[in-house]
Amino acid sequence: MTASEPNTPETGALRDQFALERYRYVLQQIQAVNENTHRFLAIYQTLATALVGATLALFVSYRKWGVAPETARSGVIGLLVLTTMVAAFTATLIAVGAFAWLDYRNEECDITDEMVGPDFRKRPRPGNLLRWYETYILLFIIFSVILMWTLCGLLVIPGIK
Question: CA nearest 54: which of 67, 40, 37?
């Protein structure tokens, strides 16, 4: 079948089948993007907990381990930087996933507009940002990093003498 062939019942059925398969694919991708957000959050929580735990272990035990205070402070800052990098990477993956989700949802709307009828599915609106759980996950990550740096700057680093 080429673009110059007339629209016959066979080409119409083939086109409908292709649209249906593409629609299924788009829905699978939307589901995968949603699942990935939860995976990324779980990875962040695990790594952040381990790194902050290592920071606290260093703070509590640096004398017993014979680590110089300057080295302990540098170690705490290094672990905080590493945790911040994990947070930034996770936040980037979640943001990219949200943009991919928007793209797939718009493609879903394009398919349904053409195959079912205009405005069958409403397009996503960025104004609904407060309804997206990704927004709150990103806010949680940002808040946790700010809290971590604040508490370490006020309590941990000054406590290493």
Answer: 67
Contact 44, 90 (CB under 8 A): yes
Token pair of 31 as six digits: 């589901």
User: pTM of the predicted model, to two decimals?
Assistant: 0.82
| Banded model confidence at residue 135, pLDDT cuts 50, 70, 90 | very high
For the record, the structure tokens of 103 come out as: 């793209």
What does the alpha-carbon distance between residue 161 and residue 73 come to, in Å, rounded to a whole number? 9
Q: Give, in degrees to the nearest 5, the angle at Cα 148 between 157 and 70.
A: 20
**Backbone φ, ψ for residue 122 (5° rounding):** -75, 140
Rounded to whole angstroms, the Cα distance separating 7 from 128 reads: 40
3-state secondary structure the chain: CCCCCCCCHHHHHHHHHHHHHHHHHHHHHHHHHHHHHHHHHHHHHHHHHHHHHHHHHHHHHCCCCCCCHHHHHHHHHHHHHHHHHHHHHHHHHHHHHHHHHHHHHHHHHHHHHHHCCCCCCCCCCHHHHHHCHHHHHHHHHHHHHHHHHHHHHHHHHHHCC
Q: How far apart are CA 97 and CA 110, in angstroms?
A: 20
